[in-house]
Amino acid sequence: xxxITESELRTTYRKAPFQExxxxxxxxxxPEGKQFLIxxxxxxxxxxxxxxxxxxxxxxxxxSFYKGWLxxxxxxxxxxxxxxxxxxxxxxxxxxxxxxxxLGKEDDKIESCIETVFESETFELEAxxxxxxxxxxxxxLKKIExxxxxxxAKYPQCQKSLQMTNKKLNEFRKQLVGAGQ
Length: 181
Known about the structure:
This protein is mostly helical. It contains eight helices and five strands.
């Protein structure tokens, strides 16, 4: 059993800063080491050996939290969309399933991201949008857009999935703004 200390992590980090740290089954972190990773916002990945001898990579709890949060936001948007269009509501539910599936794939987590430019059409909410018949839904879609940018900032390797989601949200917003005029 090897205990990884804060000083070991600090030395390694000074040589080459890292964004994630993989903890092998025979390794443990000291409390100070764990705090160092938290302070530097380094993701912790634990590799465990299952009963059948296969290695399992435990999904980052924080990443799982973000996925769940995004799902809830999309569910809320689907409920709000019911006032406008059953079709849009169903499309939002379908989008939630697609996003959850894409973000759950191992390839998306491991995929290296050389270019982290997140290109998306930005939608600025104005008073006319807020007080329109679809104001609540437009606010919810804007909130989801901003949350997607937050996830991308933390997990740039998910860029492809997040950009696709943002593109679909923009299509919904265009439908709503076009319908409200």
